[in-house]
Amino acid sequence: MSKVDLSVNLAGVKMKNPVVVASGTFGFGREYGQFYNLNELGGICCKGLTLHRREGNPPPRIAETPMGILNSVGLQNPGVDAFIEHELPELKQHDLAIIANISGNTPEEYGIMCEKLSEAGVDMIEVNISCPNVKAGGLAYGTKPELAAEVTRMAKSHSTVPVMVKLSPNVTDITEIARAVADAGADALSLINTLRGMRIDLNTRRPILKMNTGGLSGPAVLPVAVRMVWEVACAVDLPILGMGGVAKGGDAAQLMLAGASAVAVGTALFADPLAPIRVREGLCEIARKRGLSAVRELTGGVKPW
Length: 305
Ligand SMILES: Cc1cc2nc3c(=O)[nH]c(=O)nc-3n(C[C@H](O)[C@H](O)[C@H](O)COP(=O)(O)O)c2cc1C
Known about the structure:
Helix content is 31%, strand content 18%. The chain has helices at 80-91, 107-120, 139-142, 145-157, 174-183, 222-235, 249-258, 268-271, 275-289; strands spanning 8-10, 13-15, 19-21, 43-45, 62-65, 68-71, 97-102, 124-128, 163-166, 188-191, 195-197, 214-217, 240-243, 262-265. Helix 1 (80-91) runs parallel beside helix 2 and helix 7 (249-258) crosses helix 9 (275-289). Flavin mononucleotide is lined by residues 22-25, 47-48, 69, 71, 73, 75, 101, 128, 131, 166, 193-194, 217-218, 221, 243-246, 265-268.
């Protein structure tokens, strides 16, 4: 039986397989590292970092939905310096792409973090301009083309590693933001972040989440992610890390056919810590059954009507 080549290249970052774990759903790998060897993964998008430590939002901050979850975690993290000192050395022991995910209150904060992380030796920086759960920065940058471009320029001018900008689905036309970010020099795009949602308790009439609203992720968002990856892939010539609801090889294959070069698994991890490995194996099987010699041959292969 011929072997399928799983390796991919995301904006110059070589990965032995196209499956990474999505930011905020895998911490810095310590807990999941007890279940399996992190070398099984193509890469890790680390928990979102800010310049200074953040406690995140008050609980309840996770609510289940029929096909996913709503979260309003709000970027709880130890801060970029603590990550570099305490988490990065351990992660570097492994053979996987280390993608640091950052959020800033100002474009300048993005610049400072990019400088620190480039120097510390991460493989790539994922610039989050799409967090729906924080007041400052976050989503505000991701919904306005000129602000998204400003943050991208700042990140690029302070980085020596590839910069991937994470787009929000909470916009009318995602290609408008994608084009602005591409013109500002981004090396890659990742999408989608969570979709804003809300649940209400009928008895108390209170929203289930203390922040009232949160971000929806999981299987419910997969078709939205596939549609947006396809639209963005048609609009700009940048490699894409696709995510949103991936739980099986077939989900990942759809995102790749729509135009993604690699995929991230997030919410599926909460039900099955081994989900990324199953996704990798499923993708391999899909490629093999269709006679492909490399899984990257799926990228952009959709045949629209
Ligand atoms: C609990 C939780 C925390 C998240 N934290 C971050 C974060 O810190 N930075 C970020 O860019 N995205 C964050 N995300 C968004 C995910 O990385 C991903 O874009 C989204 O959940 C869609 O993928 P999924 O449906 O596979 O989870 C978070 C998602 C969840 C569920």
